[in-house]
């Protein structure tokens, strides 16, 4: 027959799946000799069987419970439901994954009109006995029979009121007897039957209630929110009671071995004297800080400190514990690895390495890379969030916390020197405004929408795709969840949760600790994968360098075309009809480009810089409004109609698959020639200043070797002109983005021309799936919700499809050119799972936005550690 019950001394901490977390740890503590009241665990398999049996406790299980109760009787010398020394138990839920407060617990089970008298006698404490009895009836009524808890509370309050007292502690034995009687009456009234006096009957219905609580609405919602799936059910722990309410030398409390908010290596917790179980958290009385226990009961405190020490050494992690003191004897009732903030997580991991508890590798594996976000950005204060009114939720596109006045266009943002930019979506024209804005909120768009990508690059807080929000351009106001915010009024954005709040929510400062630096040094020692940044401006570079970027993996040049002063020259270039005209316009842009590259090379001080030549379709640069179009015509001395003609000529039905990337250079080679010259010219200048420069010129959207060959020849010729003019040379590389499936398929041929590959996984994902990046936001969530995709492939690399293409490109590329340098510069370069995959693929580096560098570094180290295990 299958075994459904384990005594605490039969289990251990590795049996969480079967015994639940609480049960497994109670068993483990029993094993290592800590004072744990004895008991047994009914397995999670029994819970699943319970559901198979139409929610009935079947006879064999009842028998097994009886047998184990007998064993408890032997161990404790007490008897269940009768006798001079009655055995009382708690019935506690506990699944494999902790779900604090979601399921039910019953204390003092085994009490009835007879055992309550024996308990009073043997403990010589009548008050304790009746206090425990009334608690039991209340919990049992609430949990097993769904008698509303507040009805019990009303009875308690009335008795206290009639006696003119406020504290439960002032209730005397007679009061408690009275309350018990009234509780029983209430129970009978509500359930139509008398309170169960048979303890076995009590126990079986309590077990049943705990099994049932696995599927109560709050437990179901908790599992959904925390993505807890695939568990069979909850275990039930039946444990002999100890009494924290036995008088002034008794008490109960909860504590962490270290501070869960700061990580400080100092016990942190609360306790109450003369109290039972949940009194500490229920807020009926204000608990004392655990420090006070050191004065009040030094022996108990010292014993507890010793236990903390043993537990930490044993679990090698910070513990979250429950304890009870019964008449000067200390008992452990629970332990588990404690939840903590990311700040505490780092501090604790580093301390534990230094204390010799864990290795550096273990410390690295313990940190969730994504949680680092919390450390790098100002966050809203906990108190602030409690008070704040939530008015919407979108995608957590770029972390940070921003409050500011709402503006609906970049002009207003510029005029006001900041604020929250709220738009349906953003476009490249908005860059300047986005740069000045304190935060960005969009109605449409996904994690790789323009707003999201740009905001992450800028390290700017951004919530995008907040579809419940509507913007009324005419009235200059927005509406969401019935709240209306007029232009100039405040809202707050939490870029780490995607939530939008009304008004200005207060913030707290960040500081990176010494422990954090140490931790990152270990990460750097361990990892093989390089980490570069995607950076377009000196400001991005400075940020990335601060976080330890090892180079630039992607410097986009299109943003450089958008500055107020140069955009008109760019426009001139685009509407030019002849090579001559175009060259004239390009000559105007040249000094700007050169200056941009100069500043970046200087800052990067010898670290490699990959510059991607112009990628977007040309019409994106052209003026949209008629006034600007007229201005352009005037500027160039051309008829307005010819400008209009050009604009309509350039219009594309599907720009994503249109005339962009190196396709532009096939038609207008002079654009890339100008850019290449500017890069090399700037590099030579910086080299003259005695600073090392490693330029890498990257050609986007290549699909075919001959295409790259053509562009490369033109670029090389142009660069030779610069060398000849300056009478000096510099080493440079020319490589390509690999972002179209055909480039992967023909990577062996392309590698004949390319000195490096950089995977552009945004486009590669888009084209492999045939999902437009700009439109997929509308339906991809459904794929994830309906379990068709495990993850959004734009967020986490699709290993099966896109990953296979990457693998092929790497193999083919290395076959042709063994020393070829391989990197990735899509948004995936900063997503932990994708970074681990890149490590697995053996890329040389990942490149991500500056604020994700530390995340990528940690993920890279974790990938390496997991691989070598
Ligand atoms: P939760 O998972 O909600 O914390 P628990 O099962 O841990 O529920 O129990 C709730 C409270 O009851 C805790 O404070 C715990 O310490 C106390 N408790 C549980 N079992 C016993 C027992 N055998 N003796 C004394 N107190 C107990
Ligand atoms: Mg607990
Ligand atoms: Mg691309």
Describe this structure in words.
With 869 residues, the protein is α/β, with parallel strands linked by helices. Helices cover 46% and strands 17% of the residues. It contains 35 helices and 31 strands. Strands 12-22-21-14-15-16-17-13 form an 8-stranded mixed sheet. It has an 8-stranded parallel β-barrel with strand order 24-25-26-27-28-29-30-31, surrounded by 7 helices. Helix 13 (342-354) runs antiparallel to helix 14 (360-366) and helix 20 (514-526) packs across helix 35. It is elongated, with a radius of gyration of 34 Å. The model has no long low-confidence stretch (mean pLDDT 92). One magnesium ion binds at residues 322, 334.
Overview features:
869 residues, alpha/beta, 8-stranded mixed beta sheet, 8-stranded parallel beta barrel, 35 helices, 46% helix, elongated, binds adenosine-5'-diphosphate, binds magnesium ion
Topology of this protein?
Blueprint (H helix, E strand, L loop, with lengths): L4 E3 L8 H16 L7 E4 L1 H9 L6 H18 L12 E6 L10 E5 L5 H9 L2 H20 L3 H15 L9 H19 L7 H15 L3 H9 L9 E6 L10 E6 L11 E6 L5 H4 L5 E2 L1 H6 L1 H18 L3 E8 L2 E9 L4 H13 L5 H7 L6 H4 L2 E2 L1 H6 L2 E4 L1 E4 L2 E7 L2 H7 L3 E4 L7 H6 L2 E4 L7 H9 L2 E4 L5 E3 L4 E4 L2 E4 L3 E5 L4 E4 L4 E2 L5 H13 L3 E5 L3 H9 L5 E5 L10 H9 L3 H26 L3 E5 L13 H11 L3 H11 L11 H6 L1 H20 L5 E6 L5 H22 L6 E6 L2 H5 L1 H4 L5 E4 L1 H9 L10 H6 L16 H15 L4 E4 L7 H10 L3 E4 L4 H15 L2
Parallel strand pairs: 14-15, 15-16, 16-17, 24-25, 24-31, 25-26, 26-27, 27-28, 28-29, 29-30, 30-31
Antiparallel strand pairs: 1-2, 2-5, 3-4, 3-5, 6-7, 6-9, 7-8, 9-10, 11-23, 12-22, 13-17, 14-21, 18-19, 19-20, 21-22
